[in-house]
Amino acid sequence: MSGLHTVEVAREVAMTMRDGVRLMADVYTPTGPGPYPVLLMRSPYDKTTSEYFSILHPEWYARQGLIVVSQDVRGCFTSEGTFNPFHGEAEDGVDTIAACRRLPKANGRVGMYGFSYPGIVQLMAAIHRPDGLAAIAPSFTCDGTYADWTYRHGVLQLAFAQSWASALAVPEAFRRGSDSDIATALNAAGAIAGSYGHLPLDDHPLIDRRFAPFYYDGWRTRCTTASGARSTSRGAMARSTSPRSIWAVGTTSSSMARSATSRACAQAPARRRRASPSAW
Questions:
Q1: What's the total number of domains in the chain?
Q2: Which residues, at least 6 apart from 199, have a Cβ–Cβ distance to it below 8 Å?
């Protein structure tokens, strides 16, 4: 076990975004003099768990000589703001990377990791090629929120949308609701599979508007096409390739994200893509 670092943990470290909203993070720092590279995870699933059920706990990485930052994305758990899935994650990611570079003992180089939602937010930030971003390790994710994530052959994957919304409503009920709200949200998340066929879609009894308002944004008639042009005509949702909602970020198609990310990776110095922290 020689060579491993001891670690100190700072809880609820505020990082201020460009619009003044503060996102909260737990920061795991080796107790040595440093400097160290930073490993960042941004997640809507609780920074205190950091996807430990599939990825090693942040303390393990910190013991290897990394500063590890586990952040609640906007509007989730203890972070301020409103959670609007996928939207604004690129900007928040860029601002968070800048904040990580300023941490005590940080050497200015930042890597990102995580799977599913914490995976795609890496790609969204990487497209902008922020200063200091040296490596990303997205897994179990995709490069677009429309064809690859929430839609299949142009049809919304309703079971996914409803299950995800009801699950994310639970921690929001814990954060802002009463004991009764929490119990209701827990029961709803367990029962949602039996109610996928409920109509109308924009008034689901098991998805509370107070705790998962983003779900209902998907049924608005105002839409944004892939080119960014808006339409307010009835039925525009069905015709638009990228609705203005959680379910598809209108200004970034899969092909655009794939192309931009590929260019960013190709242009980055080869040493930045090495796995060893010492190369950061």
A1: 2
A2: none
